[in-house]
Specification:
The protein has twelve helices and 18 strands. By secondary structure, the protein is of the alpha/beta class. Bound molecules: pyridoxal-5'-phosphate (PLP).
Length: 382
């Protein structure tokens, strides 16, 4: 097992976030915890158990592999919804275990029906509508046929949801595009009503849409990034705070990624540190190495720019981030020893490395940075 670093996930901070989000959306809206990408890097298995203990009963994932991880730990105590890929081979497992899934093309609709008939179990499906993202979903002209098919095969298809996904609700620049999508979704709903069939629930909102366009919440919200205490963009946070008297971020970050000092050494002025010549010491320096690198998901683009915490103080990364190691400047910190805690993300004493600042350094989105953190790093719930 990897011992170079550990990721701690803070349960009480998560409970705070869930309580806040549930209060914001109201009791009638189902809260679905989106946990694709290894629960945004937090560790799917550990995270799912913790979320369950905090009251989450609905999870949305990208594929069958992720669905199986949750099913293994939580079984039928929760609803699992696959929003993305299901291989044909996996359909029997999915349908048999009453895992719900998005259907966005005729082929999947037909195939699901066939498997459901064979197993003699209803497949629980969510029809995804193409509203303008142009990724997946049935277009408006296709919907009439879909309604007819659903009516014909109602013995084998449970029409649980009608849904769509917005193309960039986190940015005001996309306001017009998202508003258009909301209109197209309304049109889709009407087509279903006209043809005499209705879904049990409708859902469209991700984190950004749930805050920026409250009308998109409908019966269920699919919340990823917000539950981890992060805002989809600073625009969304500002827009939320503008509507409140108390200008305080209601969310708490739940992740802390920490490692330790592996060795400490002194460098003379004029010497280079690490590979090549990207960093030269201008004066006498004390440097420390940390056993983490891009192989563990610590981006190489943080070379010479990233920051970490040692003894509650910021330290620069110097030189290039290597595959398994990075070097930091500890010149101004007294008594640094092998084994001292190094925080890459999260709090140490009163100081913290936020993911936002981290992403600014590397031009990565919160999302990408988190999901790149290696799966092999142990996750601990605290
Ligand atoms: C990832 C995803 C979400 C959640 O997105 P966040 O911005 O993290 O809330 C919701 N719906 C779909 C279809 C997704 O792929």
């Amino acid at each position: 097992m990897h011992k170079n670093s550990v990721i701690e996930v803070n349960k009480s901070a998560y409970q705070n976030n869930i309580d806040f989000l549930k209060k914001t959306f109201g009791k009638k809206v189902i809260f679905s915890s989106v946990v694709k990408g290894n629960a945004y890097g937090h560790g799917l298995k550990e995270f799912a158990k913790m979320a369950y203990n905090c009251g989450v009963r609905h999870f949305s994932v990208f594929d069958v592999e992720e669905a199986k991880v949750i099913f293994d730990v939580l079984g039928n105590n929760v609803t699992i919804l696959i929003m993305g890929f299901v291989a044909d081979d996996d359909l029997p497992w999915v349908i048999e275990n009453q895992i719900e899934f998005f259907v966005f093309e005729r082929y999947r609709l037909a195939k699901a029906t066939k498997v459901a008939k064979k197993l003699n179990i209803k497949a629980i499906i969510h029809i995804e509508v193409e509203t303008g993202m142009n990724r997946t979903g049935f277009t408006i002209p296709m919907l009439k046929k879909v309604t007819q098919f659903l009516i014909k095969e109602k013995e084998f298809l449970r029409f649980k949801g009608l849904c769509t996904h917005y193309a960039g609700a986190e940015s005001i620049a996309n306001y017009y595009r998202v508003s258009k999508q909301i209109e197209v979704f309304k049109k889709a709903e009407e087509i279903f009503i006209e043809n005499g069939i209705q879904p049990e629930i409708k859902h469209t909102a991700c984190s950004a849409a749930s805050i920026m366009f409250p009308e998109t919440r409908m019966d269920l919200v699919r919340i990823g990034i917000l539950q981890f205490g992060l805002w989809p963009s600073s625009e969304v946070l500002v827009s939320y705070l503008n509507s409140k008297k108390n200008k305080k971020d209601p969310l708490q970050r739940i992740i802390k990624w920490k490692s330790e000092v592996m060795s400490v050494k002194r460098v003379k002025p004029g010497e280079f540190v690490g590979y090549g010549i990207s960093f030269m010491a201008k004066e006498k320096m004390k440097i420390a190495t940390v056993p983490l690198g891009y192989a563990h998901g610590y981006s190489r683009s943080l070379s010479n720019t990233g920051r970490v915490l040692v003894k509650g103080q910021f330290c620069r990364i110097i030189g290039t981030v290597n595959m398994n190691m990075l070097t930091i400047d500890v010149t101004n910190i007294d008594h640094v020893r092998k084994g001292n805690e190094v925080v890459l993300l999260g709090n140490q004493d009163e100081t913290s490395i936020t993911i936002a600042s981290f992403s600014d350094f590397s031009n990565q989105l919160n999302y990408e940075l988190l999901t790149r953190i290696s799966k092999s790093i142990p996750r601990k719930i605290i």
